Every structure is written in C-alpha cells, then in structure tokens.
Write the structure tokens for this entry.
Amino acid sequence: MSDNGNDEIFDIDILNDIGPATKSSLKEAGFRSIKDLVIRGPIDIAEATGIAVEKCTFLCNRARELLEDIGVFDKPFITANQLYEKRKSEYRITTGSKNLDELLGGGIETRAITELYGEFGTGKSQICHTLCLTVQETEDEHNISRALYVDTENTFRPERIASIASARKIDPTRALENVIVAKAYNSSHQEVIIQESANIINLHNIKIMIVDSIVSHYRAEFLGRSFLSERQQRINRLLHILLRIAETCKIAVVITNQIQSSPDAIFGDPNKATGGNVMAHTSTYRIYLKKAGKNRIARMVDSPYHSEREVLFTINEQGVGDPQK
C-alpha cells in the first residue's frame, strides 16, 4: 500500500556526519528518517535515545539543511513575493460545503493546523468524517490521497464513512480502505500515536491528519489547578509536533476542540475553547461552530489573513453541505 517511491532520500543513513553507533541508537528509538528528527526536535530525541542534547540539536539542524536541499523546506531567507507565489499553489482540501470553503479561502489548508471547536452536535466530527472522503476525490486513481483519523472520544464511525461515500458515488469499501484509524486510549497513548504518525503518513500517502478531539484525555486525566501547568506543557508539546508534521509532510492537520463556560461572563457568549493560550497561539485557523436550528454556523475566530465572519452550513447525506436556498 506504499505510494512513495523515494523514501530512501529521507532515510537516516543519508546523514554522513554521524557514526554507525549514533545511527543505530536513532533507529532503535524509532527514528527512521530525517523528517522524524525535524518533527520530534532535539529534546524528544535526547529523551528517546540518551544522546546528548547538543548533539541532537546538531542532528536536527543538519536534517533540516538536507530537507532544504531536497526542496521540502524553503531556504532560510526568501522574498515575500516568492512565498506568495508558492502559497498560491498550495493544495487545499474541500470541506464539502462551498460556504465553509469560502470561509477558509478555498478549503482546508495544507501545512497548517485548522481547529474546529464548539459544543456537542455542532458538526465537528461530521466535518472530519466528510474530509476523509473529500480528500480521496482526486483524478489520479493510482495515487489516491488518504486520511489518518486519530480518535480519542470514540466518535469515529466507519458506517458514516460508508454512507457518505455512497451518497457521493464512491465505492464504500474502497473509501474505508483509504482511511487509517488510530484509537487513542489515554493522553500518553495519544502522544505516542502522533509521534509515530510521520512514518504512516509517508507510507500511505496521507494528505490529511485528523485528531478528534485534541484535549479530551488531558481534561479527564489532569484534574485541578495543581496539574494545570503539566497539562498545558504536554498539550503545547503535542501541538508543536503536529505543526511540524503539517509543515514537513506537507499535509493538512485538523483538530477538534471542546468548549468550556466562563461563569464570570456577563455579556456575550460565555463559551470559549478549551486549552487556553496554548491552543490559541498554535492553531493556524480557529473556527467556532454553533447550532442554528437545522443548520450550523461557522465563525472564523482567528486567522493570519481571513476576516472574522460567519457562514451557514448543514449536515446531510453527503456529510457536510450548504443550506438549500
């Protein structure tokens, strides 16, 4: 099921600056490619291998230089115009709703984290299920783009994937084969899954990674103010790994988040996204979902360049769509 024929160009063995013992330690700890080094960072590598942090920093810098030479990353200094031209050609994944796509500037952006948050029943998981199908709708049948779905709340339903596929005239069996599912049973397991996901992404031509939801296990396991600092540090670390996965593997990352009420709020909406400033600073795009009768409202809360506005969408047989006029 492997789709990438050039995995060898990312292999750890292309690092000529280190000896066989260091390479062996890296491989034994699960670091199979130079992408893994960039994604995990020097602190994680040192903890996993026992190699000194200074040497791990050198390894990460060298790996990034090699990825720049290959063309995975931009050179350190480029003009804004070069970056602008490159961004115009970035791959986007349709949500299934024209209104939602317009809100996002054409769809879910690759090399970025898109956060969906709202109360239960607002369509977060429905959007995620739909994205598992829309990412597969490519013209090249021999190089199908696939989805990786990390399920932390037991909300993934293959039956829903099959029904959306049938409504979209896609073979349900083939559609299900193109969705890789990882069920996370606790926060530590969730972290291991995400740390190891780069190899799955490369092997199966994954173009979108979904984490539904990002904070569920942390809220359940880290109760009380005494554990707040540790919880936020671990969430922050996880989010930055996801951001590096998005950038290094050139995929879209979509995370869902829960909400919490502010008891001191007198005016306006008392609900806010869980995770505090850690979530707010790391997510590239934040979309707040609300119910509106039979429809749903999506509001762009934070974006590097989109304006803050709202659109309507609906949930139907094809997953996510637009309200009938």
